[in-house]
Amino acid sequence: MLPARYFDRDVAAVARDLIGATLLVDGVGGIVVETEAYAPDDPASHSVRGPTPRNAAMFGPAGHAYVYRSYGIHWCFNIVCRPGSAVLIRAIEPTHGLVAMTTRRGLADPRLLCAGPGRLCQALAIDRTLDHAPLDRAPFAIHPAPAAPPIHAGPRIGITRAIDTPWRFCAMDSGFLSKPARR
């Protein structure tokens, strides 16, 4: 399992290195196939204006969860790196607990279970109660990738600022991405 100190480094490096890692929440999850990095001086980051009650976890210890509600609808799960920086987990390839994920999501197509931050959180039962939670103990388990898969880096999606920053990292040719990688 990855220790908290693993995340105490450059956010883009962590986002890239998480591709191929296994993310589990109470034994349910899969292989990380898509991430996005957000730095403290990044105009698209929640932390750019400093700490608030909503983003407080981003200014806490590395290796903790930052969970927030997007557009008042979906939960989003991030991994805190250095202060003010975090990696958004955008998609995983489901491999563990498919029955639980299918029940939570109300659908059977494995390609749609965790393809997008909101879907991922619903499938893994991640909500605000896990905000600030340490990722090196239950209910979380994050295991390193056995080998570095081929990775595509490109612009992040779903944002309106710093849209050309190439901090979206995807497993090449994965069928489980939230949106296809732009080449």
Sequence of secondary-structure elements: HEEEEEHHHEEE
What is the residue-mean pLDDT, rounded to a whole number?
Answer: 93
Query: What is the molecular shape?
Result: globular
Low-confidence stretches: none
Report the count of strand segments.
8
Biggest sheet overview: 8 strands, antiparallel
Helix-strand category: alpha+beta
Beta-strand content estimate: 25-35%
Helix content: 10-25%
Instruction: Give the CA-CA distance, first to last residue.
Output: 33 Å
Radius of gyration: 15 Å
Counting H and I runs of at least 4 residues, what is the number of helices?
4
Question: How is this structure best described in words?
Answer:
This protein has 183 residues and is α+β, with helices and mostly antiparallel strands. It has helices at 11-17, 98-105, 110-113, 117-124, and strands at residues 22-25, 28-38, 65-70, 74-80, 86-96, 140-143, 151-154, 168-171. The protein contains four helices and eight strands, in the order αβββββαααβββ. Strands 1, 2, 3, 4, 5, 6, 7 and 8 form an eight-stranded antiparallel β-sheet that branches. Helix 2 (98-105) packs across helix 4 (117-124). The model has no long low-confidence stretch (mean pLDDT 93).
Topology:
Elements (H helix, E strand, L loop, with lengths): L10 H7 L4 E4 L2 E11 L26 E6 L3 E7 L5 E11 L1 H8 L4 H4 L3 H8 L15 E4 L7 E4 L13 E4 L12
Helix pairs in contact: 2-4
Brief account:
This protein is an alpha+beta fold and 183 residues long. The chain has four helices and eight strands; from the N terminus they run αβββββαααβββ. Strands 1, 2, 3, 4, 5, 6, 7 and 8 form an eight-stranded antiparallel beta sheet that branches.
